[in-house]
Design goal:
This protein is α+β, with helices and mostly antiparallel strands. It is 14% helix and 23% strand. Strands 1-4 form a two-stranded antiparallel ribbon. The model has no long low-confidence stretch (mean pLDDT 97). The structure holds iron/sulfur cluster (2 copies).
């Protein structure tokens, strides 16, 4: 059961993967099916049901484009 909900402002993502590397659940990845307006595959959540709501992804993003809502 998910304990948090994560939202990405995908058009500002530069695909640096910091959020991907630091998510303790290992549930983030780049979405290879999407190209944003900057020309990158943006980060997305692969298994939303496993999010623990810790907020580490939002803290790590240098562009502040992730919002985490605790459930
Ligand atoms: S809130 Fe925590 S568990 Fe959920 S995606 Fe972000 S880093 Fe991963
Ligand atoms: S840390 Fe931010 S800019 Fe980097 S991949 Fe994640 S969402 Fe995109």
């Amino acid at each position: 059961m998910a304990k948090g909900r994560v939202h990405f402002h995908i058009d500002q993502c530069k695909a640096c993967e910091l959020c991907v590397k630091f998510c303790p659940q290992g549930i983030l990845g780049l979405d290879e099916n999407v190209i944003n307006i900057l020309g990158y595959h943006p980060a997305s959540i692969l298994r939303p049901q496993e999010c623990n709501g810790c907020g580490i992804c939002a803290l790590m993003c240098p562009d502040l484009i992730i919002e985490v809502e605790k459930e």
